Amino acid sequence: MDPLDIARWQFGITTVYHFLLVPLTIGLGVGVAIMQTAWVRTGDERWLRMTKFWGKLYLINFILGVATGLVQEFQFGMAWSEYSRFVGDVFGAPLAMEGLLAFFVESTFLGVWIFGWGRLRKGVHLAALWLAVGASWLSAYFIIVANSWMQHPVGVELDADGRPVMTDVWAVLGNNTAIAAFTHVISGALLVGGMFLLGIAWYHLWRRRRDGIDTVGPDGRVVVGSHPEVAGRDEKDHSVWLRSLRIGAVVAVVGFGALTITGDFQGKLMYEQQPMKMASAEAACHTGSSFSILSIGDPGAEDCDSVQTLIEVPGVLGWLGKGEFGAEMPGIDDLEPQYVELFGESLPDDPRLGAHAGSEIDYVPPMWVTYWGFRLMIGLGALAAGGAVGALWLTRKGTVPSSRWIMRLALLGISTPFLGNIAGWIFTEIGRQPFVVAPNPTFWGSDPVFMFTAAAVSPGTTVGELLFSVISLTAIYGALLVVLLVLMFRYARGGVAGAMPDMEHGIERTDRGPDDRSPDEKDDEDRHSDDDVLSFAY
């Protein structure tokens, strides 16, 4: 067993798990804030119900995201100390900004929002949520800045020891790779949030039809009913789910449209900055302009000999890479000799590299991972957007079909943008190999800043230590996944009443704030106020 491989598996497992939670926090958070804004402006209780229900799921996801995110920083020092030493002068600034300016603001104002129901004025309470949501987006940007520097190092100079020292913080923060990646990540998060709204809302509308609460008239339009014996199953409940579903579908379609635009820009940057990554993603062994729709080959092959392109479209690859149909794009066979000439045939004969010292460098990332990761990313996103368009059509008359199978497909559709996001990140990170910090082509031939992944792992770390940590972390994360799914299923199935306990007491909550309640309302509302807030929080 190789310590490097185990360390990479550990980082991959924990990072992929964490990023399952991040896009939902970003995408759902802004949705909840918009819902509460609509309630504050209109006073419509349906918007309040939507805010409380989706806000509950948002909080469950957020706290698991915090717990899993903390592990990432510890890994830098434990398994990747050489990497930390190399990038520390650059990473210190954006990660400090993420912690002090973004994460602390996000946590503080989210706490104000959680415990401020009925205690703060509506406007102040709403502002706390918007500040928390804005801070989460800012937090994402600083993290993307750090990752993008690994993809395209800028704003640094090498010191006498060959270590990059930051000389221009604005170049780091304004890295065009970071801007492209951030807009792409936000677009993906909106797609995730939209499909999350759509799938769960579809389930609740289907349940209302299954239970006979809502029916369909001769004209095919919904006849909204009520179940007065059950809290929250009234006419307003129908509107809550229909609004949520259609808002989610629109957000998903808009998110995918933004993904297409930002992805095109990011792809052109990748061809410019990491040509080997994009050549591998297209299985483009030879220089040309044809885009591969389907290529096959031996996943274990170390060269292009086994790759066969079965379906291709002439000229499209040039447009993807340079914006010019028919433009010639460099292939793997032409790029590999350039990398060997610039960065050497083998790793340095350094004892800190252990068994990898002096070993031959393979500059071609695993093509089967990059090729199919790239296509899964696009395909799953398109599938989600197509499902959202179909949902808008099927619900045009006010409800969902009574089919149980369509309901299951809607719920399954929640997973598609999550999987697409993960496929995209796996493609991005594995496609950078064998570098952990990829060289900036601007400085090729002069003083390039780069670091091989084999040189980044902590020297002296044993297989046993890494196996213990990866097994322990995987087990803990597995347990947390069970907790997350149990809580999500419980509160998603529970509907609005599960997020608004006062509905079970027959109290019409207005959450007006501490100073504008009438004396007659004050006693009844405050009697359950503490229980409501604590139930919402915990």
Reading side by side through the largest sheet, how are the strands ordered? 1-2
- Secondary-structure-based class equals mainly alpha
What percentage of residues falls in helices of 4 or more residues? 55-70%
Number of helices: 16
Mean pLDDT: 86
- Strand percentage lies at 5-15%
Gyration radius, rounded: 26 Å
Distance between the termini: 43 Å
Q: Runs with pLDDT <50, length 5+?
A: 506-510
**Can you summarize the main beta sheet?**
2 strands, antiparallel
Number of strands: 8
Q: Give the topology string: H per helix, E per strand.
A: HHHHEEHHEEHHEEHHHHHEEHHH
Shape: globular
Please summarize what this structure is.
The chain is mainly alpha-helical and 538 residues long. It has 16 helices and eight strands. The two termini are 43 Å apart.
